[in-house]
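User: Batch of two.

Assistant: Item 1 of 2:
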Amino acid sequence: MSDAAASGGVVQTFFANIHAPTQSQLDMLTKKLGIPIMALAHDRDSGGTCMGMIRVERSGQRFAFSDDPVLRPICGFIAWNRWDEPEDIVGWSPRDDWTGSWQGRAVLLGEHELQLPRLGTPMPVHINVVSWLRSHREGVVAIDRKRAWRTLDGFTLAAETVDASLQLRKLLTRPEPRIVVRAQAIERAAA
C-alpha cells in the first residue's frame, strides 16, 4: 500500500469508527480533567481534526476497532507525522491513562509540530495525553515510549514541571547497547 493510500486509509478509518462524545463524556474531559473544549474540537495542525470516541479491543499498546457495546468508549485522535500526513490512529483512555495505536506506527501525538520553526524555543514534551490536551495540543506526547527518544533526538525539550522533566529524562534515554564478550577473550583473561 502506498503512503498516500495508507494516509487516506487512516482518515477514512478514523471517521468510519468515531462517534461524538456524550455530554457526560464531555463533562468528564472538560470539568473533571480540565481539558479546554477547543482542544477536543480542533487540532493545531492545518487539518484541524477533532477528537472522537472509539470502541476498541486493546492488545498491549495496540488496538482493534470493535462494535461491542459492552466496551467502554475511549478518545481517538489522528496522529499526524512530521510531514503533516496522517500516520495512525491513537486511542487514549482517560480512566486509566492507557494509550495505544491502531497500526503501531504512531510514535508521538503532535509529531507534525517537529517540522515547525521553533526560533530558539524548546519543544514542549508532555508526560501524558491529558497534559498535552490541557496545553491546547501544543508540543508532543509520547505514544510509543520505546521509540520516542529516536524521534526527539537533537531537539531541545521543555517539560512542565521538575517531576515531569525527571520522568522524561528516564523515558527518553537511549537504551544501553547489549555488549557481549567473545569466549576466546574470556579464556585469555582467565589464563
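Item 2 of 2:
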Amino acid sequence: MNIDRHIAAIPDQSPADRARVRANAEGWLASEDPAKRDAAARLIAALDGHESAAAEAFERTPLTDRVVEAFRRRPWSDHERKLVQALLDHPGSTTTELNRLSGLGENMVWQMHFGNMCKDRTDYLGPPPPAITREGPFWSGLLADAEEATNRFTMKPDAVAGFAQLGLKASR
C-alpha cells in the first residue's frame, strides 16, 4: 500500500480532513494485512508529527495573525460581521446593548452568537479560556475581554488589529 501521497497531503488538509484520515488509519491498524498496518502506523506517525509542529507554530503565532487566518479560511457571514462591527464600534458595551446594536433585539443572545462564531473557528483561533461564572469554556474570550461585574465586552487589541487587516474597523 503506497501511503506517501496521503502523507504528502497532510499539510494542506483541514483539521476535519486530518481527523477523518486518522480515523481511517486507526481502522487499518486492525487489518490482517501487514502492509496495511505498516501504512497505518506511518500515516498516524506523520499526522502526529504534523500536529506537534502545528501546535508549536500556533503557540508562536500572534492573535492578530490567527484572526486573519481564521476569517480567511472561514469567511464571516453578514450576521457575524454585524456582531463584530457592533463590538468594534461600541467597546465596553453590555450584552443588552450589543444585542440591539447588532440587530438581535432584546433576546440577550449576542454573547451566544459571538461565542459560536469564535467556536466555529477554534481550529485557527486556539482553545478558549475557561468561563469564570460557570463551568465550561468562554468562547467569546477568544476575541473579547469581558468584565464579570458589569458584563461589558471589549474586543482584544490584537483581534482589533486582525479585523483591521481584513478591512473591518470601528466606524466611529
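The two ends are 60 Å apart (CA to CA).
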